[in-house]
Amino acid sequence: MTRPRRPVRTLALAGVGLSLLAACATGTAPGTAARAPIDLPRFMGTWHVIAHVPYFAERGHVASTDTYTLRPDGGIDVRYTYRTGFDQPVQTFDSRATVKDGTGNREWTTWFFRFIPTKFRILEVGPDYGWALIDYPGRDLAWVFAREPVMDEATYKDLVKRMDGHGVDTDKLYRVPQVREQVGKLGFAYPKEP
Q1: pLDDT average, residue stretch 125-142
Q2: Residue 175 contacts residue 64 (beta carbons within 8 Å)
Q3: Cβ atoms of 82 and 63 closer than 8 Å
Q4: pLDDT tens digit string along 67-99?
Q5: In terms of C-beta distances under 8 Å and separation of at least 24 residues, what long-range contacts does 30-35 make, across chains too?
Q6: 114, 145, 161, 177: least CB-packed within 10 angstroms?
Q7: How far is it, in rounded angstroms, from Cα 13 to Cα 33?
Q8: Residues 75, 69, 148, 127, CA torsion sign
Q9: What is the pTM of this model?
Q10: What confidence score (pLDDT) does residue 76 get?
Q11: How far apart are CA 48 and CA 144, in angstroms?
Q12: Cα-flanking dihedrals φ and ψ of residue 82, to 5°?
């Protein structure tokens, strides 16, 4: 009769436990640090909101973008630009963001009105930083960003699959019309105004 290898099994379980404990201690989700860090200066600039699981303040917006500008102190200025219809004036909303240390520049806190914090995570970026997948912890909200306003269908479907792989409920994902010709097409949200 052979005895089970308890020391090996115990060591393996202890290793898993220590990894989870370390993740909890840093506040970083397991695997976050293992991925390549986001190149923050490269991430800066304008991103078109290709699709989103919207929250109340974004519903009905078209031609929306987020522009990130790195400040000398390491903080980030954020400008959200949108229209409520293609014949409506451009509107902007400014906020600021900070990046959580030890997350590979993936976890951010955005401060609205200087004192209301919201969190979001950069799940993935394209190899050329041409697209990005973002979610809100808890996966209630999500965004597909791109450097160009129009995305081809094959790329979009691939990014939706990737988001689904991150646990985002992609059934709630709506495409944001970036050009007038997209209004009324299948899968695109409707503008708030004509």
Answers
A1: 91
A2: no
A3: yes
A4: 999 999 999 999 999 999 999 999 999 999 999
A5: 32/103, 32/104, 32/106, 32/107, 33/102, 33/103, 33/104, 35/104, 35/106
A6: 114
A7: 21
A8: negative
A9: 0.80
A10: 97
A11: 8
A12: -160, 170
> What is the structure's pLDDT at 4?
43
Residues 6 or more apart from 78 whose CB is under 8 A from it?
66, 67, 68, 94, 95, 96, 97, 110
Q: What is the pLDDT of residue 17?
A: 33
**What does each C-alpha distance from 157 to 152, 173, 184 come to in angstroms?**
9, 12, 19
Q: Which CATH number goes with the domain that contains 107? A: 2.40.128.20
Question: Look-up: residue for tokens 């991150």?
Answer: 166
**How many domains does the structure of the chain reveal?**
1
Tokens of 36: 């390549």
105 in a structural domain: yes
Q: What domain range includes position 167? A: 40-182
Average pLDDT taken over every residue of the chain: 84
Cβ(74)–Cβ(190) under 8 Å?
Answer: no
Q: What is the pLDDT of residues 103-118, one digit of tens each?
A: 999 999 998 777 788 8
